[in-house]
Automatic annotation (TrEMBL):
This is IAA-amino acid hydrolase ILR1-like 6. The Mn(2+) ion enhances activity. It comes from the Eukaryota. Its cofactor is Mn(2+). The keyword Signal applies. The lineage of its organism: Eukaryota, Viridiplantae, Streptophyta, Embryophyta, Tracheophyta. The keyword Metal-binding applies. It comes from Rhynchospora pubera.
Length: 472
């Protein structure tokens, strides 16, 4: 996931993002999203899964609450998660993954560790999906089926934290906490396996590659990871929240994020009006105006040009009249409507402004590698997360989180299923856990690992227990 103030603090990273985009996609990005039904997609984004079973889904017919249920599950799950040996097991998994970070679609060791741990606790799984992905299954093997997701990939960042389990791989680091996500989901697998006879359906655990680049979620879906699944949940560690605080919100949570690369070329080399530099300059100014002049000030949006290059092989020896200019940038928005509107206007502005100066332009939005619509939480799934978190950890450990201008490929799951994305706080000043994700100084308070395992397990178990279709 990407930092919300990326345009201020992550400029160097954006350069890296663009290099990756332009030279060897997939690139490294972060973004967030949301959707409106009336906005046509430029092309199908997802495989043709049936619509989510909102109408028949018990969770939509009545609010999910814990009232009237046996609350013994809370103590049992927390106790299992916090057992000394369980904590050690989860921490060791996280530390091993942290020491051996792997980038998108290269999660060989990480995937192997996941499968080894699942073998150890007797949990069956399907492998591979999306090259390195794993889908584990616990429960009755029958509907209802609920899914939990963890992402496995690291970032191309050199770790600058000096600690015992520092990254052993030069230039790669788990700077977004995905090592913790995998460890927490393994911890949840252990709890759920122990409680398997109590499950009123099936839990699928998705260990997914390539969240930071390459849209691993989309490829997991294409490989059948969601077959039979009726709802999905996922967590992300957050340095904004104090350790073990759970945070989320209904509706738009994370912005849609994408990148663009435009190539502006002279239409007619003999034309005296032709000017790629002038065209590119006016394009940059006009793109900035899209937000300042066209966007609703209450509907947060970003358009930013981060790269411009006119020193191509076609430039003359004085560099005065290059016949090709390449420029690139990013855009973000919280509503799907605004997101697709921005995409359309960016293309229109680049093409039209270029034409004024005797040039033609083409625009690539990298829709197969880094096109992330906004992430929107289903209201009922959000309420489920909130209710479970409050029941399990107490109301003092739950916060309604503000929308964040980061992004996540979890949005691809949320486009086809009722879903909720939530944060687990990892901020702990005394443990040095104060830096944002994607910082080379990023670190987490490992004390959240058992809490995260318990929350994941409880979300899945309670979803099945409180669903009308349970046992059907
Ligand atoms: Zn990230
Ligand atoms: Zn992340």
């Amino acid at each position: 996931m990407m930092s919300p103030n990326f345009h201020l603090s992550l400029a160097p990273l954006l350069c890296l993002l663009f290099l990756s985009l332009l030279l060897s996609p997939p690139s490294y990005s972060t973004s967030l999203s949301h959707f409106d039904e009336d906005i046509p997609l430029s092309r199908p984004l997802l495989s043709p899964f049936p619509p989510p079973p909102y109408k028949n889904n018990t969770s939509c017919d009545r609010p999910i609450t814990s009232s009237g249920t046996n609350n013994g599950w809370k103590e049992e799950i927390l106790q299992m998660a916090k057992r000394e040996e369980a904590v050690k097991w989860v921490k060791e998994a996280r530390r091993s993954i942290h020491e051996n970070p792997e980038l998108a679609y290269e999660e060989i060791k990480t995937s192997q560790l996941v499968r080894d741990r699942l073998d150890e606790i007797g949990v069956g799984y399907r492998y591979p999906l999306a090259r390195t992905g794993v889908v584990a299954t616990i429960g009755t093997g029958r509907p209802p089926i609920v899914a939990l997701r963890a992402d496995m990939d690291a970032l191309p960042i050199q770790e600058l934290v000096e600690w015992k389990y520092k990254s052993k791989v030069e230039g790669k680091m788990h700077a977004c906490g995905h090592d913790a996500h995998v460890a927490m989901l393994l911890g949840a697998a252990r709890i759920l396996k122990t409680r398997e006879t109590l499950l009123k359906g099936t839990v699928k655990l998705l260990f997914q590659p390539a969240e930071e680049a390459g849209i691993g979620a989309k490829r997991m879906i294409e490989d059948g990871a969601l077959e039979g699944v009726e709802a999905i949940f996922a967590a992300h560690v957050s340095s904004h929240e104090q350790s073990s605080i759970i945070g989320s919100r209904p509706g738009p949570l994370l912005a849609g994020c994408s990148f663009f690369k435009a190539i502006i070329q002279v239409s007619n080399p003999d034309s005296t009006k032709a000017g790629t530099i002038l065209a590119a300059s006016t394009v940059v100014i006009s793109l900035q105006n899209l937000v300042s002049r066209e966007a609703d000030p209450l509907d947060s949006q970003v358009v930013s040009v981060g790269m411009i290059n006119a020193t191509d092989q076609h430039a003359d020896q004085h560099g005065l009249l290059p016949d090709e200019v390449v420029l690139g940038g990013t855009f973000r928005a919280f509503s799907k409507n605004s997101f697709y509107q921005l995409r359309q206007r960016i293309e229109e502005v680049i093409v039209a402004q270029s034409r004024v100066y005797g040039c033609e332009a083409s625009v690539d939005f990298f829709e197969d590698e880094s096109f992330y619509p906004p992430t929107v939480n289903d209201k009922l799934m959000y309420e489920h997360v909130k209710n479970v978190a409050v029941d399990l950890l107490g109301p003092e450990n739950y916060n309604e989180a503000p929308p964040v201008m980061g992004s996540e490929d979890f949005t691809f799951y949320s486009q086809v299923l009722p879903s909720a994305f939530f944060y687990i706080g990892v901020r702990n000043e005394s443990a040095g856990s104060i830096h944002q994700g994607h910082s080379p100084y990023f670190m987490i308070d490992e004390g959240v690992l058992p809490v995260g395992a318990a929350v994941h397990a409880a979300i899945a178990e309670r979803y099945l227990a409180e669903n009308k279709r349970a046992g059907s």
